[in-house]
């Protein structure tokens, strides 16, 4: 089978596109014929050498996938041959990744794809959808009528957070780096979208929310926690899901005096039950047409190295040339 894989970590150029043996489903696994995958920042960190866990070599890159069950290993009962599925949490903790024509996957990390949803959209929503759901509802406990601020609303996670917050009846303020991206955020449902390159964000938020916001969701790798805590309302919740090397200043006094809380998390540390509960809502909202993946572009799997380069330029280099997910097709 064709696959995007590496023999050693390093820059995007270490990714090879070529033939690897087609996996065979072991006991408790499904063989998925992959129809679409998507790129996440963590994919580039792992490829670049982040020492999160030991990699099986050759290592197939990627976390997300959508496709069709081609074969079922012994002791599998959740799915059958021909079922369309989507999932994430591959390529992590010793598991092989998804950027290949076929992937052998434990069904606890897979979920049914709604009939009216394309594989490209299912793959693109996988990691970002579960991340958004865990952060909003498991950590922040977001409720109808509350006010949510998202620092960066046009990317994969931010665009999903906007939609989920609106589905449950919250009010949303967000930022983006151009007028075109501001328009994208408004089309996704944001009540207020601010161009952070031309507007004083803190001042704009104070005009909308003089008492502060209930939840502050941070997407950037170098968070300004002084601003974040200033913008939080009493009992506000701060959500951190990026910035593994960041060491920002933190205003302890205002934070504890207002009774705020801070929640950091990574989706791949959540157990299968928690992720399946998130996927259940995602399935329903996708089927109902209330949730959509924000896809920036679709590329052939052979261009995985270029896709990694583009993702890295935007995640680390802040190039601003992406507004959503990069999807690839085998």
Sum this structure up briefly.
This protein is α/β, with parallel strands linked by helices and 330 residues long.
Write structural notes for this entry.
- With 330 residues, the protein is an alpha/beta fold.
- It has 2 domains: 2-125 and 270-329, Quinone Oxidoreductase, Chain A, domain 1 (Alpha-Beta Complex); 131-267, Rossmann fold (3-Layer(aba) Sandwich), CATH 3.40.50.
- Helices cover 30% and strands 25% of the residues.
- It contains 9 helices and 16 strands.
- The longest helix is centred in the middle third of the chain and has 21 residues, at 119-139.
- It starts with a strand and ends with a strand.
Structural descriptors:
six-stranded parallel beta sheet; seven-stranded mixed beta sheet; 2 domains; alpha/beta; Rossmann fold; 9 helices; 330 residues; 16 strands
The domain count comes to: 2
The CA-CA distance between the termini, in Å, is: 10 Å
Average pLDDT confidence is 96
CATH topology of the largest domain: Quinone Oxidoreductase, Chain A, domain 1
CATH class of the largest domain: Alpha Beta
Mass-distribution shape = globular
Blueprint of the fold:
Elements: E1 2-6, E2 16-19, E3 30-38, H1 41-48, E4 59-60, E5 65-72, E6 84-87, E7 102-105, E8 110-112, H2 119-139, E9 147-151, H3 156-167, E10 171-176, H4 179-188, E11 192-195, H5 201-208, E12 213-218, H6 225-231, E13 232-240, H7 252-257, E14 261-264, H8 272-287, E15 295-300, H9 304-315, E16 325-329
Parallel strand pairs: 9-10, 9-12, 10-11, 12-13, 13-14, 15-16
Antiparallel strand pairs: 1-2, 1-4, 3-5, 3-7, 3-16, 5-6, 6-8
